[in-house]
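Title: Comparing notes on inverse folding

I've been comparing how different people in this forum approach sequence design from structure. To keep things fair, I'm posting one structure and asking everyone to reply with a full sequence. Here's the target:
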């Protein structure tokens, strides 16, 4: 730990408490120094869950304690402002998704980090979902032939649930992951079409179609109102199709964190999916199960810490996320106009 990167966290709501703190505390090359939160309730939770981590009133106090980097897990509408403050203080910064509320504000944060000479990344942890890693492997091996259509869903059934303002709405919340994964797999999009439903800005259901420059068509769904979720993935190629079930096949790392488990407590068992959750590779009337790759959310923070030490690349380049934000902006425009938007 002598050369570990001293890392802080801003925000200890569900995102910070469940999805960031356990992974920061599990990374061997990270010294999780504490959390910026003024809430007495959150401070009590922090003391119970991470007794060696301190609570701070401000980012300035976190810096005074020796922090070199910070992860921002605050409501989406505050991301740009908090990131700008952290950058001005000379901190290397990780911002939770959605990065910001729109592409122009995202560009401003990226520019500020470049001018200050600090590292900036976005927590696109679902690049390391077990099922997506399996899809990437199958594509790289040529097991599906030439990819023609990519279908991807985050669909859940919670009809009484109010979409939290903290996430910016389902298009921004789920869409940040779904679009990022599609662009990662198939490259830039040239055309965007979207249908969005919900009350005001806090939409709760969307469909998004991307026409990629390489010819692949991505169809993406996100919803809190779907009583019968479709396949998590259906990836169709010229020689085969890979399908992952929408319920049993959902990557299990989120459930592990919510159950209070972490990479530190599970070790090599972290991210390992049970056989009943494996997807299947279809060739017409025949099919066979495909062992799912191990999920590796636990690799994000160690990779970022190595980048801070000049020993590797950022786990997620911010320019990738600018492309995602541009697509999401175009999706809102398309939903409002009822027409496809060219990029």
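Reply #1:
Here's my take.
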């Amino acid at each position: 730990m002598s050369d570990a990167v001293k890392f802080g966290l801003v925000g200890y709501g569900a995102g910070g408490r469940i999805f960031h703190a356990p992974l920061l505390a599990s990374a061997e090359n990270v010294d999780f120094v504490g959390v910026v939160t003024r809430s007495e309730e959150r401070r009590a939770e922090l003391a119970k869950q991470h007794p060696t981590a301190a609570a701070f009133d401000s980012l300035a106090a976190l810096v005074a304690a020796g922090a070199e980097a910070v992860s921002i897990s605050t409501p989406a509408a505050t991301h740009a402002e908090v990131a700008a403050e952290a950058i001005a203080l000379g901190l290397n910064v990780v911002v939770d998704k959605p990065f910001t509320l729109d592409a122009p504000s995202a560009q401003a944060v990226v520019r500020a980090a470049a001018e200050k000479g600090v590292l900036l990344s976005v927590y696109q942890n679902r690049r390391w979902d077990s099922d997506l890693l399996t899809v990437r492997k199958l594509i790289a091996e040529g097991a599906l032939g030439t990819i023609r259509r990519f279908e991807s869903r985050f669909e859940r059934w919670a009809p009484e649930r109010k979409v939290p303002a903290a996430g910016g709405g389902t298009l921004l919340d789920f869409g940040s992951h779904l679009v990022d994964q599609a662009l990662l797999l198939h490259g830039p999009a040239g055309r965007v079409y979207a249908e969005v439903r919900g009350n005001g800005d806090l939409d709760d259901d969307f469909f998004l179609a991307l026409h990629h420059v390489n010819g692949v068509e991505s169809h993406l769904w996100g919803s809190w109102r779907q009583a019968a979720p479709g396949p998590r993935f259906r990836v169709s190629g010229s020689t085969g199709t890979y399908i992952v079930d929408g319920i049993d096949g959902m990557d299990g790392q989120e459930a592990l964190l919510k159950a209070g488990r972490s990479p530190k407590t599970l070790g090599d068992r972290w991210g390992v999916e049970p056989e009943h959750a494996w997807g299947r590779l279809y060739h017409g009337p025949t099919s066979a199960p495909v062992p799912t790759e191990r999920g590796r959310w636990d690799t994000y923070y160690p990779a970022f810490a190595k980048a801070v030490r000049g020993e590797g690349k950022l786990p997620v380049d911010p320019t990738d996320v600018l492309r995602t934000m541009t697509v999401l902006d175009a999706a809102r425009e398309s939903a409002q106009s009822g027409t496809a938007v060219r990029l």
